[in-house]
Design brief:
The complex is a heterodimer of chains A (260) and B (353). Chain A has 260 residues and is mostly helical. Chain A has helices at residues 2-31, 42-49, 51-84, 90-102, 105-116, 127-151, 155-164, 169-180, 182-198, 201-205, 211-221, 224-249. In chain B, helix 2 runs parallel beside helix 4 and helix 3 (107-120) crosses helix 4. Bound molecules: adenosine-5'-triphosphate (ATP) and magnesium ion. Adenosine-5'-triphosphate (ATP) binds at residues 13, 18, 36, 38-44, 192 of chain B.
């Protein structure tokens, strides 16, 4: 009985792994066939020398980083304040952070375009609008990651301890709260980054040279490079995950206040 | 010299009054405890002194200055929490130096002060550890050092020992008291443990349902409780309903058994109902020659408590506990025996309500 249980769990696990990895391996192998008859990295070579790829990729990286910074600056104080002073609004705020899952991105982007393409808000061409949009899209991940991090520490008591030692709000946020939710922020940050790198609709309809629209364009034009680009973006996402884990482990037995 | 004054403090949350009519003057260097059951407003009062809550009415003055509405970080008040509240991302030394850093002290001053504090709490070897590498007792000592490093005017402690084992608790409370004496800092200590309050304090404020029931030295609180609540909450106590039979002589009757009290009953009338209280250790078996307050009793139960033996006796219809010190030559009666117990006139307390 117990033995067969173990066998079955292995079976399902291997099935899961196959389901996930087979297409990826196939894509990878396919991306190596740009030269007839032999396996080569030609597709990658062409991809990395393509100006549009460089441009789209670097723009997306830049916007990803900006989104992370804006997200941290907005969501850390918000989540902190809600936990500290407005616990009665927790559910309401959580609902708001989930809106990007409820409102389809296409609806969201048309809303943005309609609102911000007339005076007095004529900023539809500004990258700021794109970053703002990305921040909204990454909100469910970022906010939740931060909120989970805050749950692991005794926010109220740590705040009061710092206050009684003379600290002001900025000091409390930057020297007490941020360092103690560092791991949570990082995981939120990398998730946001992955979202920005893979986001198509917003960039496409705001006509910005981002990575995903470039990829879509590439698929229509070429055979092997899109496969290579897919592998690259997977590798990137995994690198992000790896980094989350690395930081998560480091000094990360994040002792919580009042533990022991 | 009066250092801290709370006058007419009250605190309401919506329509519920959590603290009312709180008046207290604390001397410089005094160690005052707030003692009371859960929910009686001890923490709320302490938090008003710390600045985390603003009183609904009343004023708090420190060194003559009104600080009622000052923000917590403008008060120079040290606070110790039940949950230690050390900053998890900082080492012991960084935790202790945090407040000094905020005040922009120079590196050398901070270093010296941190070392002083580490010596005070005897954790010199642990300076570079993180809080999660310390035991609860050690963490709380670091919290104490962190609060004291800033040289606050008042040290506030909210049940700092509640999360610790019984043994560490007793040890650390002695240590807290010794450090408080050494530094001469004014301290307010919140606890719901009467033994803790009595053993550590210069004065105890007994609180009940948001009001001060009695303020006094541990000696006064224990020996002369003013209200039934204090009498019951502090120490173990026998209480009984009684009737005044002769106010001028201090005569009282419990179910028809006459006893004599040393208390002043001049404001009472014959037949007035009163509550009386007698500590268990004030009873003893009556030896020959005793005249006052000798009562016939029946032994109901005997409980061995280590240094003390508690004997439950019934006097008439009322049951009392009587404590005697244990010793190897003690001759204990048997359950069901009849005997005679006595207590002095001074032992019979007449409660105010
Ligand atoms: N922010 C608040 N809003 C509403 N009621 C509160 C608030 N804080 C405390 N109270 C109420 O005030 C009363 C006193 O609380 P307080 O924390 O001062 O009690 P305490 O004496 O410290 O009790 P304990 O020994 O359990 O810590 C309680 O009934 C509590 O429910
Ligand atoms: Mg409390």
């Amino acid at each position: 009985m117990k033995r067969s249980g173990v066998v079955w769990s292995w079976f399902w696990m291997i099935l899961g792994i196959l389901y996930f990895f087979l297409p990826l391996v196939a894509t990878f192998l396919f991306s190596l066939r740009a030269k007839l008859g032999i396996l080569s990295f030609l597709a990658y070579q062409q991809l990395f020398t393509d100006d549009d790829f460089i441009k789209g990729f670097s723009f997306s990286v830049l916007w990803g980083v900006l989104t992370i910074i804006v997200g941290i600056l907005i969501f850390v104080p918000t989540a902190y304040w809600v936990r500290l002073r407005l616990p009665q609004f927790r559910t309401a705020v959580e609902f708001i952070t989930l809106l990007p899952f409820v409102v389809p991105a296409i609806v969201f982007v048309f809303g943005l375009v309609r609102t911000f393409s007339h005076p007095p808000f004529l900023i539809v061409d500004s990258p700021a609008l794109l970053v703002a949009g990305y921040t909204v899209l990454s909100m469910p991940y970022m906010y939740r990651a931060i909120d989970t991090g805050l749950r692991a520490i005794d926010v109220r008591t740590l705040t009061e301890a710092a206050q009684s030692l003379g600290a002001d709000w900025a000091t409390i946020l930057f020297r007490i709260i941020l360092p103690n939710i560092r791991v949570a922020i990082l995981s939120g940050a990398f998730l946001s980054f992955a979202i920005v790198m893979g986001e198509y609709i917003l960039a496409q309809y705001l006509a910005k040279p981002a990575f995903a629209p470039f990829l879509a364009f590439l698929i229509q034009q070429k055979a092997y490079e899109p496969a290579a680009a897919t592998v690259v973006s997977f590798a990137l996402t995994w690198a992000c995950m790896g980094i989350i884990n690395l930081f998560g482990r480091g000094r990360g037995q994040a002792p919580i206040a009042g533990g022991h | 010299m009066i250092h801290l004054t709370l006058s007419n403090i009250s605190k309401e949350y919506g329509s519920t009054t959590v603290v009312q009519d709180f008046n207290l003057e604390v001397e410089k260097g005094e160690f005052v405890s707030f003692l009371g059951p859960s929910g009686c407003g001890k923490t709320t009062t302490l938090r008003m002194v710390a600045g985390f809550e603003i009183p609904t009415t009343g004023t708090i003055t420190m060194d003559g200055l009104d600080i009622t509405k000052n923000a917590p970080n403008q008060r120079n008040v040290g606070m110790i929490f039940q949950a230690y509240a050390l900053f998890p991302n900082m080492t012991v030394a960084q935790n202790i130096g945090f407040g000094l850093q905020i005040r922009r002290e120079s590196k050398s001053v901070i270093k010296q002060r941190v070392e002083e504090m580490l010596a005070l709490i005897r954790l010199e070897q642990h300076a570079d550890k993180y809080p999660f590498q310390l035991s609860g007792g050690q963490q709380q000592r670091v919290a104490l050092a962190r609060a004291l490093a800033n040289q606050p005017q008042v040290l506030l402690l909210d049940e700092p020992l509640s999360a610790l084992d019984a043994k560490i608790r007793v040890q650390l409370r002695a240590e807290i008291r010794a450090i408080q004496r050494k530094t001469g800092i004014t301290a307010i200590f919140v606890t719901h443990d009467q033994e803790e309050a009595l053993s550590i304090s210069d004065r105890v404020v007994v609180m009940y349902e948001g009001k001060m029931e009695q303020v006094g030295t541990p000696f006064e609180i224990y020996n002369f409780p003013q209200t039934a609540f204090v009498a019951n909450f502090v120490g173990t106590l026998n209480t009984a309903a009684a009737e005044v039979t002769d106010p001028s002589k201090g005569l009282i009757s419990i179910d028809g058994i006459q006893i004599e009290s040393a208390e002043d009953l001049k404001d009472k009338q014959n037949g007035d109902k009163v509550n009386i209280a007698i500590r268990p250790e004030r009873f003893s078996f009556a030896s020959d020659g005793k005249k006052a307050n000798v009562m016939d009793c029946r032994i109901e139960n005997i409980t061995f408590l280590g240094s003390v033996v508690r004997i439950r006796v019934s006097i008439g219809d009322t049951k009392f506990n009587m404590d005697t010190f244990n010793n190897p030559f003690l001759e204990l009666p048997k359950i069901g025996d009849t005997s005679q117990v006595t207590c002095s006139r001074e032992a019979v307390l007449v409660l105010k309500n």
